Amino acid sequence: MKEVSRIAILGGGESGVGAAILAKNKGYEVFVSDKGEIKEKYKSVLKNIGVEFEEGEHTESKIFNATTVVKSPGIPDTVAMILQLKEKGIEVISEIEFAGRYTKAKFIGITGSNGKTTTTLLTYHMLKKAGLNVGLAGNVGESLAKQVAEYDKDIYVLELSSFQLDGMYDFKVDIAILLNITPDHLDRYEYKFENYVNSKFRILQNQDEQCHFIYCKDDEAIQGYLSQNKVKAIQHPFSIKTITEKGAYIENEKLIININNIFEMTIQSLALQGKHNLYNSMASGMTGRVLELKKEVIRESLTDFQNVEHRLEFVAKIHGIDFINDSKATNINSTWYALESFQNPIIWVVGGVDKGNDYEMLKEMVGEKVKAIVCLGKDNTKIHEAFAGVIDTIVDAGSAYEAVKLAYGLGKSGDTVLLSPACASFDLFENYEDRGQQFKSAVKGL
């Protein structure tokens, strides 16, 4: 590994400040630059450890003299500065790649268009219950770099987005989990689905014959890639459609895992219900079996897990109407799963910043399940056009409060109001958490 004397970090959020802590810890000269505002809690960390930083601009002279640049996953590779850095031969990497250079820990990496967070938290829950010295990082938990610097673990469970994987080169994931691949973030991938697929499969780079690859056999994009590319790792497919060797499947209402002896439990006893959650439970359970955790630990974990906030989260029942917060559903596929989970008539709250959505795949599901649509976004034209012939009632809201009020007025006892936006949140909200919190506050204010 080559020595680096100066590191520039682009982005002063959780991952950037974590990278700064680790870089400072290792004796590097560190500079943090954020084009936006840096939160007060992160500024105070940088001041305390004596790291120079700036906000509201990128001073090129202080960035281009670095040997390595650690880039926030939110910054596209196509930005002029990133292209110039690479042209000059300056290494541009992700915080995960940087942190991986300073730990001997084992890594469980989880990616996919949907279900990453739930599966990551469930797997972490299981490993903690098993008494392992485990950390949680990536898109959830604390920065991996910060943990490596301050209290390194034996094993980490990482939620990895395609953006993070794009900045990883030498990093090795010991157990890779690929849940599904559906069109998402195509604006970052030249609107080519195959580019996004290739990005997801970067999770396998550097794996060898001792590593494990857990993947969904029912996913067409995954199967298509595997039919044309060789994988070194030991493969463990999971399916709800067919019986699999060295993997997991459903038979007679039971989840069966055939790794290091047979493990089985009834699907009714799983904490996470719904078809999409079966896949998440399978992937976590298989990880437990690969690690040879006790069967009772796996069974308990899959039974008593509490799901993540903003993911199909029950908010309240008001005059017989259920309000569900699924603000974390920022793409079409997540929303499809959400709609599929409910039997009651749905008033669907949808909209935000469209990431190249094709609403065609939702039309049949929406026709079956949805009685009214409330659009929550600045520009709802595409949603109106997509569902005009499918749903009679489509209304617009400019705030979470207005959306909840409209949805409540359209509902009656036995209905479900579902916030599942299928879009990013940045037109009206800070992020999906802010959108979910505002929705919940509005519901509680009814």
Automatic annotation (TrEMBL):
EC numbers, comma separated: 6.3.2.9
Functional summary from the UniProt entry: Cell wall formation. Catalyzes the addition of glutamate to the nucleotide precursor UDP-N-acetylmuramoyl-L-alanine (UMA).
Name of the protein described by the UniProt record: UDP-N-acetylmuramoylalanine--D-glutamate ligase
Species: Vicingus serpentipes
GO CC annotation terms, alphabetical: cytoplasm
Residues holding ATP: G112, S113, N114, G115, K116, T117, T118
A GO MF term: ATP binding
One matching Pfam family: Mur_ligase_M
GO BP annotation list: cell division; cell wall organization; peptidoglycan biosynthetic process; regulation of cell shape
